[in-house]
Design brief:
Elements: E1 5-10, H1 15-28, E2 34-38, H2 41-50, E3 58-61, H3 67-74, E4 77-82, H4 87-90, H5 92-101, E5 104-106, H6 112-129, E6 132-134, H7 142-159, E7 165-174, H8 179-194, H9 196-203, E8 224-226, E9 231-235, H10 239-252, E10 262-270, H11 272-284, H12 287-290, H13 301-305, E11 308-316, E12 322-329, H14 333-352, E13 361-363, H15 365-380, E14 383-389
Parallel strand pairs: 1-2, 1-4, 2-3, 4-5, 5-6, 6-13, 7-10
Antiparallel strand pairs: 7-11, 8-9, 9-10, 11-12, 12-14
Helix pairs in contact: 1-14, 3-5, 5-6, 7-15, 8-9, 14-15
Length: 390
Amino acid sequence: MDREFDVIVYGATGFTGRLVAEYLQNTYGQEVSWAMAGRSVSKLESVRDEMRISKEITLIVADSSDPKSLEAMASRTKSLCTTVGPYQLYGDSLLEACVKEGTDYVDLSGEPPWMVDTIDKYNDLSRASGARIVHSCGFDSIPFDLGVYFLQQHAISIHGGPCTKVRGRVRKMKGTFSGGTAASFGETMKRAMREPEVLGWLKDPFSLVPGFTGPSQPKGNKPIEEEDLGSWAAPFIMASINTKNIHRSNALLGHLYGTDFIYDEMMLTGPGAEGKAIANHVAGDNSMAKNPPKPGEGPSKEERDTGYYDIMFVGDSNDGNRLIASVKGDRDPGYGSTSKMIAEAALCLAVDVSRDKVPGGVYTPAPAMGKELIDRLSSKAGLTFAIESK
């Protein structure tokens, strides 16, 4: 596909969008063709200068309330990266423009009801136009989705088949969730109050896999002691969206992990009485609902640079084989690492993954980009994928 740009960053004046633009400038400069887009040219100019981005980078004015401006923008690029959420409020018109123009699209959506809608509305249309639509290209859900994919690829290679049960366990994490995540959570809850069926989608681990119902899944909503891991485990706030995306990935990969695949996510809090106390505290923490961070706000550069995460994936097969993998990130999850991941996802679609290999459709990261994205994230974005125990 011959387009003027490889990637356009839409929402480049927002907190996360600015970080995406800064990352592209510092990592690639003008090695790739990219542009910044937003509602105000003066704000774009201000961000460009503040973030020390080259004046050679094109600035594009587009607004979610003006569909024609979005279509014009989408027609100029191979891939469009949007950080403008909550997506259920601001995402439809841009997604529609990308589908219409056959433009690849990546976002940071962790909003299951909206994703149910987009699969229903746009999957067939995007297949026809060639647009690859990939949701959840930040901390939710790239490290988890690709972590399971990485583990399963090695399980098949080493043991001859996939792990039928995988536990995603956050071992360490330093950093905050984004204001956008909090806002998206709030909008999802508002919709659930208006539309009772939305509650069913939120509870159903297979709600992003239309027509398929898999085996009963662990709920992960109460602290548990995991003796084989030597630790207590607490509920993990991102599990609701990550588990749904991983089951969709399995389905889109032709049930590579099996139709009987079981997956859950929790946060490890340590052994003994102290680990139990921490797990109970985490389980009772509702600070996200009571005092959420505001969209457009975020941590300082020092806080982003000193953040990190370490996720373990414990895979067990029916014949008794166990495989342990890990994914680690070198920045805070909600902003520093997320901005790098979505930038690389946008470039991966534009540059690495042909439409012969991956045709149009509504995807999750693993089936859309798989090894190509793992390689990018490992070489450029500070992520480490490793097999720890065979």
